[in-house]
Amino acid sequence: MIYLLGILLSLILSLNSFAIELPALHAGINDLAGMFPPASADDLNERLRRFNTETAATIVVLTVKSLDGEDMQNFSRNAFKALPFDNTALAKSALLVVARKEHVVGLQTAAELRQLLPEPASSQKL
Q1: Lowest-pLDDT range, 59-63, 87-91, 117-121?
Q2: How many distinct helices (H) and strands (E) make up the chain?
Q3: Neighbouring residues of 48: CB distance < 8 A, sequence distance ≥ 6
Q4: What does DSSP say about strands 58-64 and 28-31: parallel, antiparallel, or unpaired?
Q5: Counting beta carbons within 10 angstroms of the beta carbon of residue 56, is it exposed (0 to 12), middle (13 to 18) or buried (19 or more)?
Q6: How many CA atoms lie within 13 A of 116 on its CB side?
Q7: How crowded is the C-beta side of 58, counted as CA atoms within 13 Å?
Q8: Which of 43, 57, 72, 107 is the most exposed place for a label (fewest CB within 10 A)?
Q9: β-strands 124-125, 93-99: how paired?
Q10: φ and ψ at 111, to 5 degrees?
């Protein structure tokens, strides 16, 4: 019985080791894939700040080089849960994830923004 429990625990730990490690995310652009030229990133960050000021809603953009075999829906859901916002701010947040290698975009929206930004049934391949 203990042997079975040990095998199950090691299997669970090995599955978690495939997850992509993300640094601490912040509001605005998190360009881990280096997709935005500096001027474009500055402009978009300013627009996102203005949107937040006018609506109290936060949009976070995350680019990654690759999903490394991970499913976009699971990856974006986990990244959304990792956002450093309190529950009130998180309820009015959206996360746009772009995976450069896979050419896939994912969107996670909180309850209060689902009418404005409905999540697609599946990730869209570019």
Answers
A1: 117-121
A2: 4, 5
A3: 27, 28, 29, 58, 59, 61
A4: parallel
A5: exposed
A6: 12
A7: 21
A8: 43
A9: unpaired
A10: -55, -45
Q: What is the CATH number of domain 23-125?
A: 3.10.310.50
Of 84, 63, 51, 54, give the one whose Cα is nearest residue 20: 63
Residue 101 CA to residue 64 CA, distance in Å, equals 8
Residue 66 contacts residue 100 (beta carbons within 8 Å): yes
Would you place residue 61 in the very low, low, confident or very high pLDDT band (cuts 50, 70, 90)?
A: very high
| Strand ranges, E, within the chain | 28-31, 58-64, 93-99, 104-109, 124-125
Percent of the chain with pLDDT over 70: 79
6: amino acid identity, one letter: G
| DSSP, residue by residue, 88-120 | HHHTTEEEEEEETTTTEEEEEE-GGGTTTSPPP
Residues contacting 20, CB < 8 A, separation 6+: 64, 67, 68, 70, 75
Domain ranges of the chain: 23-125
Name the residue with higher pLDDT: 28 or 3.
Answer: 28
